[in-house]
Design goal:
Structural class: mainly beta
Helix content: under 10%
Largest sheet: 10 strands, antiparallel
Low-confidence stretches: 1-26
Mean pLDDT: 85
Radius of gyration: 28 Å
CATH topology: Porin
Distance between the termini: 73 Å
Length: 232
């Protein structure tokens, strides 16, 4: 009888140990392993301007669009799934400034200063489209919070260099003409940015350039650029 009881006790001990080990290695309790998340983004929204020269630099709200493509990486800063992350990576961005009325942007010499200056001038044609576009390469850096598969928030800044700029004018019933040139726009720009996203795809963003002017000092309207829209 005693050997039988000892055998039963040994079997119960083995079963308890195996059950505990199985529970310990359950998939629900697998330790979280932080990883770098690839995060491609498509931004689309509207542009606006503020500053001392904004009244003379009137834009069509829906025609002045912002578009960007982002190749970001989210780098974990902790071992928690909802821990903070750094989002960083290159992007290319287009700011389209569509002008109101029959105006077009030209670069001319200011006789008082002898310097090149960009100004808006009236056109005697009925213009269907008239705009300035800047094409820029940026490096945004954001501090991000929240689980990557749920609601996340990010705040940070970006800096970039102008790669190209041009004006496009299309008279009503005529052919569009495009002229590439610097138009005295600032070569280096920086700004602040914030994002809020749900899931891994869709979100909202806002950007503002608090001190960087669109045009170089004394060579164009004194305006700062802002953008707001959605990120897909």
């Amino acid at each position: 009888m005693k050997p039988f009881l000892l055998l039963c006790a040994a079997a119960l001990t083995s079963l308890t140990t195996a059950t505990a080990q199985t529970a310990h290695t359950s998939p629900d309790e697998t330790p979280y392993k932080p990883r770098i998340i690839k995060d491609f983004g498509f931004y689309i929204g509207i542009n606006g301007v503020s500053g001392a020269g904004a009244d003379g630099f009137q834009l069509r709200p829906l025609g002045s669009r912002f578009v960007a493509l982002s190749w970001r990486r989210q780098l974990p800063l902790s071992n928690r799934p909802d821990g903070p992350r750094i989002g960083v990576g290159p992007e290319i961005a287009w700011n389209n400034f569509m002008f109101e009325r029959d105006q077009r942007l030209v670069s001319t010499v200011n006789p008082a200063t002898g310097r090149q200056e960009s100004v808006l001038v009236g056109d005697n044609r009925d213009l269907k489209r008239t705009k300035l576009t800047t094409f820029q390469g940026n490096i945004p850096v954001l501090l991000m919070f929240g689980p990557s598969d749920r609601v996340t928030f990010g705040v940070g800044a970006y800096a970039g260099i102008r790669l190209d700029s041009y004006t496009k004018v299309k008279p009503d019933g005529g052919e569009a003409t495009r002229q590439h040139g610097g138009y005295n726009t600032t070569s280096l720009r920086w700004g602040l940015t914030a994002e809020a996203a749900w899931g891994e795809d869709t979100g909202l963003f806002v950007r503002y350039e608090p001190s960087t002017m669109l045009f170089r000092d004394g060579q164009g309207p004194k305006v700062n650029v802002w953008s707001v829209g959605i990120r897909l």
